[in-house]
Amino acid sequence: MRLTFKSVKSVSYITPASITFTVIFMVVTLFLSGNPILDMIELKTYDLRFRSRGHLQPTTPVVMALVDEKSLDAEGRWPWPRSKIATLVDRLSRDGAKVIGFDIGFLEPDANSQLALIRRLSQEIVALDIKHPKLEAFLKEHETDADNDLILATALKNSSAKVVLGYFFHMREEELDHRFEASQIEKQIEQISASKYPLVIFKDKDLDIEPFIKAYTPESNLEIFSRAAASAGYYSVRSDQDGVVRWMPLIIQCGEDLFPPLAVLCTWHYLDKPQLMVKVARYGVEGIQLGKRFIPTDENGELLINFLGPPKTFPHISITDILNGRLAGGTFTDKIVLIGATAMGTHDLRSTPVSPLYPGVEIHATVIDNILTQDFITKPNWSKVFDMFAIVTLGVLTGLALPRMSAFKGLCFAVALFALHIIVARWLFVNMRAWLNIVFPLLVLSVNYTALTAYYYVTEEKERKRIKGTFRQYVAPLVIEELLKAPDRLKLGGEEKVLTVLFSDIAGFTT
Q: Is the whole model's pTM more than 0.90, yes or no?
């Protein structure tokens, strides 16, 4: 049976136009309201766009000093004594690093058995009322030498490089197995208050919404380190519903203040602390102004991370090589050095569009690179309008074209539209850094094509049965087949044609 889209008349109130309109309406409704399954598929197409784009080389002075397997083998189990971290800071500073950022936190006192023993001995001497100035001086001197927290704080304070500490936020109270008292939260916020955004500009004073991501409480560094460092930025990241990190929150509100992440503060210090402000428009956050550089965000203040490539896109340097002087002088001169962990046991490997095991510290390096190069992936304000236009256009094109085509041509046309939209979306992603929706426009095309194909198949079958039922008792089967090939020829009144008729007789023959 030869299925065509031509010349099939509807035998009911359902028409190709009504089918097309219904499909477009349903897909637009799904697009505006959101659908978890379709949204998840769209996220996967976003990831595929990164992989199809290929690997880009970083052009910014960002390197990473890492607690990797090599360092653990050489320096021992993590966490290390903070005196070792102090030595690392000293080495980086002497080599000319401009900014040192920590993707690790110093949230609790250093576990130091030697210091604990000296302090316990001092307490026992006081309890026994032993008065011996030389002994007291000896213990005091060794207590200072054994105080790894003090050693690290001194290194942070004396560093010629600007040191940015890292911390994280507890986003919701219900996620914790204990409750912070209000005074504890206030103290934690006070520890990071010097590193809040200094300026927030509201373009509309009557803004009704609260666009910022809110956190329950920070988990800040010990006060001795907070006072010694230049700044502190959070290293919290957000995963989408599939567990993949695609966004970096550039603004988190805790209490009344707004706080920046580690990457923004490292960049700020690297650029010699230009004016830093948050810009808020009527619809939500517009972005971050960092001197002459502007960082576009979504309405909640989150940045789409423009991943350049797989792990080790940025230079990875083992900390043990730095501590043991195995690197050439000037390796870190005028660099932003991020200190973090990539060893498997350190639990800082994240799933990203470019790799299922991507170092968390390299995410921050990528964001710094995006800011310095001003190379961002965005969902422009016009993207939703474009997506709606694509949905309606593809739906209308299939609705108009398929009734005028044979089944094969209709299939080719639909496949061509399908491929064209993917090519356009990928081109805009690669060249314009714009994320436009692929799934919903292709959904309307696929559903409308399927619905119209089913409609024409059903109506043509009905037409074939009607013709066969009407004429099979009156005309030859060959005539019926001709009518089935061209149903439009079936009409009252017959058909006028010019014919030539030959009459003949055989002489001398009769019946």
A: no
